[in-house]
């Protein structure tokens, strides 16, 4: 048997094995119970249009946290590669702390710990401001590391050429290196946006109201009131409506970057 035929036979056997496993699972499943627990169309219909408020809040929370993460993360990345030691030490500590702490704990500290330490403190935007800062702090640490990697991926010769033209280190980083680094790290930044979309489900720790609850909290409330898991399925599908296109965009950007 030729190598080509062996590959075809091996591929056919793999497909047959996968089909057999899927068939066995389909035959073993209790589809009646699944439909009763997850596929109650009347319950799903009752979630609309209220669920769109939670869906919109999820998008807003994600974008606010990502914006805060970018605004804080880029300076931290520049400090990480700075020639000034104290900047590097502070940035390293910042990244290690906020990458090491769970996002839920950071949200709790921002929402309850900081106001207790500073009585009378009011976040701009209320819950939205708390989410932007709480999730943004964690996000900024990951964004800083991605941007730092992008900065270090820029050819050293471009930095030397800019410095030879009389540019300062700061101007070289801001006008020559950083624009190229940001283009390089667009795919991981898109992945970070996907992670923030899912992390927005942690906002419940802040005690949101009906007007400010996000998708996951809304689905859990509906689960409690209906004693049925259909709301969780609807919530999951709406999350996929956000994350699948973003993931596809990240893959496309990665492939385009690889071709350069």
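^ Assign residues to that structure.
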């Amino acid at each position: 048997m030729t190598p080509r035929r062996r590959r075809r036979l091996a591929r056919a056997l793999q497909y047959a094995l996968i089909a057999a496993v899927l068939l066995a699972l389909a035959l073993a499943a209790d589809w009646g119970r699944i439909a009763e627990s997850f596929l109650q169309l009347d319950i799903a219909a009752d979630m609309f249009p209220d669920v769109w408020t939670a869906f919109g809040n999820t998008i807003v929370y994600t974008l606010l946290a990502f914006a805060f993460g970018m605004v804080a993360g880029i300076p931290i990345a520049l400090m990480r590669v700075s020639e000034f030691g104290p900047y590097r030490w502070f940035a390293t500590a910042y990244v290690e702390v906020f990458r090491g702490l769970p996002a839920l704990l950071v949200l709790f500290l921002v929402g309850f710990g900081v106001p207790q330490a500073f009585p009378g403190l009011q976040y701009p935007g209320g819950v939205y401001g708390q989410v932007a800062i709480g999730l943004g702090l964690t996000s900024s640490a990951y964004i800083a590391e991605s941007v730092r990697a992008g900065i270090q991926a820029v050819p050293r010769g471009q930095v030397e050429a800019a410095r030879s033209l009389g540019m300062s280190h700061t101007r070289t980083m801001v006008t020559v290196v950083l624009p190229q680094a940001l283009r390089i790290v667009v795919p991981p930044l898109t992945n970070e946006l996907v992670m923030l979309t899912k992390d927005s489900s942690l906002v419940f720790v802040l005690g949101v109201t009906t007007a400010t609850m996000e998708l996951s909290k809304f689905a859990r409330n509906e689960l409690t009131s209906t004693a049925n898991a259909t709301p969780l399925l609807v919530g999951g599908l709406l999350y996929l409506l956000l994350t699948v296109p973003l993931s596809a965009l990240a893959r496309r950007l990665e492939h385009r970057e690889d071709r350069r």
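Residues 51-80 form the longest helix (30 residues).
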